[in-house]
Write a structure and sequence with these properties.
4 helices, 28% helix
Length: 100
């Protein structure tokens, strides 16, 4: 997946381009800086192998070894809505990066 590759190669522009608009806006607003300046500072894991993919209409989830991504389909393709997600007994997931 291109998002995972962008994290691995530290290509902030490519990684930010794959975030859903609301997710990118939330990240930039919370940090007060452009996404390309802050995405590398987030503690996002470089995930391992794909363990599963679920698609429900325009929503999707990709489970990797070490990470879960939530995605939405936009006119220009799939975008990451939440990343760095781990199951949380008190909630469905806790995510490092997510939209508002």
């Amino acid at each position: 997946m291109a998002f995972r590759e962008g994290l691995r190669t530290k290509d902030a522009a490519a990684t930010c381009a794959l975030l859903a608009p609301a997710t990118r806006d939330t990240l930039e607003s919370s940090e007060g800086k452009p996404c390309v300046k802050v995405i590398a500072l987030e503690e996002l894991p470089v995930a391992g192998s794909v363990r599963g993919v679920d698609v429900y209409g325009n929503q999707g989830r990709t489970v990797f070894d070490g990470d879960t991504l939530f995605l939405s389909r936009f006119p220009d393709g799939w975008k990451v809505v939440a990343a760095g997600c781990t199951p949380d007994p008190g909630r469905p997931y806790t995510c490092v990066v997510e939209g508002g």
